[in-house]
Amino acid sequence: MGDREKILRGAECCKYEPSQNGCPEECPYLPEGHLTCGLDPLLDDVIALLNEQGPRVMTLNELTEIYVEFKGDACPVRLTNFDLAKIIMYAEDGICRLWTGKPNNEQREAVKWDA
Fold it and tell me: Counting Cβ atoms within 10 Å, is residue 65 exposed (0-12), middle (13-18) or buried (19+)?
């Protein structure tokens, strides 16, 4: 299983044509002493990460820890103890929206509120 942040950093490095000297030094897939990383390790991690995105059985931690963003509040709240029925009611009424992880401001702004 690939580390999401590592995969994103690697993809950002590969997004731009490598310089004549090879991959940027900050590429997390660049082996020590090499000028280029090759795409195989990155692509293996990308494939593993995408396969993880399919339907799966949720863990209890996923059910007991959610991030809720309330309309008009600039900071998503991590909830560990909550009334699920009440949260669903708030979400259906457009008062809040639920995130699987803590979103950054760019992610929050990119997703428009339904109501």
Answer: middle
